[in-house]
# Entry
Amino acid sequence: MSAFSIHNSRLTLEGICKDVENQYYERKGRDTKASKLANQIIGMLNASGGVIAFGISDAGKPEDLNLLTPVKLDAYRKIINDFVRPPANVVLEEITLTSGELVFLYHVEHDHERLFHRENEDVFLRVADSNKGPLSREEVRKLEYNKPIRSFEDELRPDFDSADFRKTVCEFYREKMRFEGSFEELAVKRNLAARKDGKVIYKNAAILLFAEDPTQYIANASVRYVRYSGKERHSGSEFNVVKDERFEECLPRLVELLDRFIHATLRDYYYLDIEDGKFQRIPEYPKEAWLEGIVNAICHRSYNLQGNSIYLRHYDDRLEIANSGPLPAQVTVETIQKERYSRNPRIARVLSEMGYVRELNEGVPRIFKAMHKSMLADPIYADLNDTVTLTLRNKVTDHMETIHADVLAAIEGNWASFNPTQRGMILHLMEVHEAIATTLASKLGVGEQTARNNLKKLEELEIIERLSEKQRDKMALYRFKSK
# Structure
C-alpha cells in the first residue's frame, strides 16, 4: 500500500492500523483526552521521537475525528501550545482517508538538549511501547544528565566529505523508506543532516550509519574480537590470545560482518536424545543472544567516549560483550530487563527502519529468553568504570567438546542394540569426558566385571578407547575414541 503521509514516506494506512506499537509508534482512539495525549507527546519528546496516530483505535480501526465538536477538535490542534513546555518540534498532519474519516498524525521530533514537561512541571518518558511518568525527581535528574551524552550523534560535521559514504547502504536505506527523492534529501528529512548556508552538513549519526569507514571521523568507532585460550586473560610469557580481529565499517555492515564471523567462530556441542539415539547439534551460545548483545552494544554505545572500541572477548567458558559508556538514564543492572532507553535514538531508529533491529528496546529480554531456552545461565550485566559488559556463559566446558564423526555414527547406528549399561556409559562419558571402570560401575549400579565387559564391547565398536598400556590397570581411564 502506498504512503499517504507527506512527512514520513514510510507510513501507510495499513501500517498505522496494523503495526505493533513500539518505541516510535502509538495509536490513540478518539476518546483520548487532550491532556493524556499531551503526556504521550512529552514522553516521545524526551525519548526518541516518533509518531502518534490520533483517531485510530487500539484495535486498528479509524475513528472519525470529524465527529468531535469544533471546540474539542481545536483543542487537539493546539495541544502543543496548551500543554507542552518548552515549545516543541511537533508537526500535526491532518489526513482525510479515502473513506472520509479524519485522523491526526503527530510527528514528534526528539530533542537532545531540552527536557520537556507539562505546564504543571510533570515529566514523562516513552519506554518501549508505553509512557512512564510522572518521573520522580531522581529520574528527572538522570534524564537531564544523559541529554549531553545523547547529543553526540546529533552534532554537525562540516569536515565530513559525502564522497566517503558507502553508496550501496545509502541506497538500501532510501529504498527501505520508499523515498522518491535523493539520499541527501532523505538524510535532511530524517534529521541525519541539516542545511546550512546553502550546503547539506551531515551529523555524526549519518557518519556512523553510512560512511565507508567511520573511524576516519570518529576514533575507535569499531568492534574488536579477541579469542583467548582458557578461561582467563594472561600476559607476558603466558600470553594466551589466539585470535585478534578488528572490524571497521558503517554500522549496518558491521552487524552483517559480525553475524557471519561470530557464527563461523563459535563451537558446537552435542546432545544425545536417549529416545532415538540421535545426536542434536547445539551451538555454544544461541544466536539470538549473542547477536542481540552485539546490536545492543552498537546502538547504545557512548560514541563520544572514544577511548575504546566495542570489545568481544571470547574465552573457553564465556563470551563478553563490552562497550563504552555507563548504562543510560533510568536503567540499572537490576532493572535492565524492564527499563529501556536509547542513548542514540537516531541510530537505533535507522537500524530499525533498515531491519537490523527487529523490535525496538526488546533486545535485552530476548537475550534472557534465548539463554533460558538453551538451558544456559542467565546473562550477567556489569556497569563498571564507564563500561557496560554483558557476559554469556556456555556449557561447552561441561560436555565433550569434540566427538569424532565416526564415533557419532557408531553410537547412532548401534543405539538400538545397546543395553541400559552401555547407554548409561555413553551418557556419563558425555558429561565427564573420561572415567575409570569402578566409577562407571558405581554410577550405573552394576558390578565391576559387568562394567568392564560392557566397556570392552564399546571398545570393539571403536566408540571408546582405553588410556593405559598396562593390561591389568584398575585405574585405566576410558574416553570416546579420538580418531
Observations:
- The mean pLDDT is 89.
